[in-house]
Each structure stands twice: as C-alpha cells, then as structure tokens.
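Exercise 7. Predict the structure of MFS transporter from Streptomyces cupreus.
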Amino acid sequence: MTAIIESRTRTAQRTYSRWASLVILCAGTLMTILDGNIVTVAMPAIQNDLGFTASGLAWVVNAYLIPFGGLLLLAGRLGDLVGRKRMFTAGLAVFTVASVLCGVATSQGVLIAARALQGVGGAMTTAVVLGMLVSLFPEPREQARAIAVFSAVGAAGGALGTFLGGALTEALNWHWIFLINLPIGVVSWVAAVRVLDRESGAGLGKGADYPGAALVTGALMLTVFVIVGVGERGLAETLLMALLALALFLGFTVRQARAARPLLRLRLFGSRLLAGANAVQIMMIATMYGFQFIGALYLQRVLGYGELLTGTAFLPAPIVIGVLMLGWSARTIGRYGPYRVLLAGLALITVGMGLLGRASAGGSYAVDVLPAMLLLSVGFAAAMPALTGLAMSGAQEEDAGAASGLFNTTQVVGGSLGLAVLAVLAASRTEGLLADGAEVLSATAEGYQLAFRVATVVAAGALALAAAVLRPRT
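Solution. The predicted structure, encoded as tokens:
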C-alpha cells in the first residue's frame, strides 16, 4: 500500500513539474512575441522623441527581426548540444538585459543596438522551446493540450502586444514598453533555473558544424534583411542581395550533405509533414502578420483611431484565441485529427481576410473589422496548434531542437515577408491613386483593400497546399 501511495505521489509531482515547466516556457516565449509587436503602436512616439527619419524608424523593427530570424536555426542546434535548459535560461538573461538597455536608450544608435541584442536573446529562447515541450509531453493527447496552451500564448501575445504598446505609450511613455520585460524576465529566469529539468545535451564535442552555421546564419540574416527592406532599395540592389542569399543557402546545403556532423540534417526535409508544415506556416503567418500590421494602420489612418483605442480594438483577438486554444483546440484535434482541424482553420482565415478586403474609406469597426477579426481568431486558434503538432511529429527526438529552430525560423520569415510585401503593395496602390488625383482617405483605404485581397489569395494557397501535402496516409 505504501509503495502505491509513493508511486502516485511521484506521478503527481512529475505531472505538476511538467505543467509548471510549460508555464515557464510560455512566459519566456511571451516576452519575445510581445516585443515583436509592442513597438508597432509606439513607433510615432519613438520617432518624435529620438528624431528618427521615416526610413530610419524601420530599423527599430528590423534590428530585432534580422538577428532573431537569422540565429534561430543555430540556436536550436546548439541547444541540442549544450542542453536546451542552458540555452533557454541564457536567452532569457540576454533578452532581459537588452530590454533594459532599450528602455533607457536616449539615442538612435543605442536603441537599435539594444534591439539587435534583444533579437539574439529572443532567438536563443525561442529556438529550443518546442523541442523541450515535445520532450516534456511525449504522450499524444497531453502533447496536443500542451501545444495548444503554448500556441495560445504565442498567438494571443501578438495581439496583446498591440494593446500594451498603445496603453503604456499613452499612459506613461514608450520606454515602458521595454522596461516591463524586466520583472517578467527576472521571475521567468529564476523559475526556469529552479523548475526546468536539466538536460546535458549531446556535448559540443559532437560539433555544431561552425562553417555551416556561418553560411546559414548569413543566409537567413540576409534573407530577412532583403525582405524587410523591400521598397527602400532599387530593384537591382534587391536582386543582387537575394542572389547572394540564395548562393549562401546553396553553399549551406552542400556543406550539410558532406559534413560529418551537420548543423541541420537534410533528412529533416525528407519528412513530408515537417517540410509541408513549414511551407504552409510561411503562407499562414504572412497572412496573419499582414492583418495585424495593415489592420492597425486601417484603424488609425482611415477610421481615425488613437494609439490606445487601436490597441483596445485588437483585444477580441487574443481573448478569443486564448479561450479557444486553452480548451477547445486540443479536444477538437483529439476528436477529428490535426489535418481536418488545420483545413477548417485555414478556411476560416481565408474567409476572414476576404471580408477585410471589403473595408472602405466609409467603413466601420463593427461592420468591417470585428467580424473578420473574430473569424481570423477562431481560424488561427484551430490551425496553429494542429500545424505545430504535424510539424513536430515529423522530427526524431535527436532532431527536436533543430526542428523547433526550423519551425520558428519559417515563422519569422513568413511574418517578415507578409509585412514587407503587403505594406509595399498598399503603399504603391495608394501612391498611384494619389498621383491620379484621388482623395487621401479614399486612396489610403484602397491601398489597404489591395493588401487584404492579396493576403486572401495567400491564405487560400496555404489551404490548398495543406490539403495536398499534409493529408494523412492510410
């Protein structure tokens, strides 16, 4: 009898420890996601305070995205070698220190440098989270629930960042959008050191393929740099850098095929689920990030909303996503399977973006934005956990860190691509209409309409690709 009680006690303790670990992983991830969005609403205040030009202001975002997207793959592999807990806690420390530097910045150079350091810390933290999560919850049903919780935090954090950015900037000042990370980061770091299981890792002696790391990091950073700078440079310069990035990727591929201990085993791309899920994610995230960015601009520049009101208008998204992902998503995936749930979610996203394509200069939040936002939120709450589960199911345990880094990398690339392309399309359409004599408000709204319609096509493409590639085999 005593042995049974002790066994049950150990099981209960292990269960508590795993879910406590999930909370810590979510808290660390929430910081990095918030900072990817929280600056959006505060950009005008930062520009006025530090004297940024219009083109220079973009580097407040770009300086974070470039190292973040470029280092995810390397950080994921290093996590497999040195231990994912070590990589996660080190990333939290770097990110927290960089956030304080951002918060106390009084010059353009200091803020941009600190944002770049934030990107490094964010990559270290984010790259290993999915690998740790899959190891913590190997049983499929529990894993689905854990992924749903993690995805809820990530998805809700993106929209919550828009609200917090507006609220903190208007109530205090823009410095606090970064300083708020200090207490969160310190508490998360202490909890991670105490609660997370220690992982020894394979050891640096196994090799991280440093030449390959240099090639892929350079290729990814250059790719993100090209994407976020679309519209700022000439066509010839953009094509030249794109070709250079492609050459680096080809060099990396050749290196991985020949290296004794490759950074990224090419067999990962032989997994239909992993490769297909990453491709679908690029298109889906491009759509959703485009909605957040263009949607905020529509509310501010067409409907005349202020910073706080814009953030408040986005609150239904994180609430719906959080509520659905914390319960409904996992149960639905368990009942119908991730493939069917993913297709249903992508269909709702496509319909929601189609509705936004009708938003005009005479539109309103209640009629043109809120219904579409609710459809997008429900669709994303269904699609993201299903897609994450499909992607990670295509990786072996020893490749979990690399697969996690790859999945997060395609998320950053998709978000950067969506922001850059849709913003350029909207601006080009608006400028063309203004040149033809159209009114500013009407031209601006039509530019956003074009962006939303293109995003609708991209979402439909993601649905078609998922239906064709991710279908379960009997």
